[in-house]
Specification:
3 helices; mainly alpha; elongated; 86 residues
């Protein structure tokens, strides 16, 4: 097994993150935090993946999307925690 399997695993986690953010963006209770996170993560993932080869562009997008979703998701979580501390 080489390091290319890591890219496949990270891309799979990126796909899961995209589905979860999409689901949370549909729900009214979490829409205010999830929708901007989904949009900004998709834009950042698309921008960063645009420099990759055409053959691996989907994998690159999903991998960069996961990184952006983690960063923007942590940011949204911090805002939500500061807005509604429980």
């Amino acid at each position: 097994m080489g390091p290319e399997y890591l890219v496949i695993a990270v891309a799979a986690f990126g796909l899961v993150a995209m589905v979860l953010l999409g689901w949370r963006a549909v729900r009214k209770a979490s829409r205010a935090d999830a929708l901007p996170t989904l949009i900004f993560s998709a834009v950042a993932g698309g921008y960063l993946a645009s420099g990759s080869t055409v053959q691996n562009q989907l994998m690159s997008f999903l991998a960069y999307f996961l990184g952006a979703a983690l960063i923007f998701g942590a940011h949204a979580h911090a805002i939500r925690w500061l807005r509604d501390p429980k």
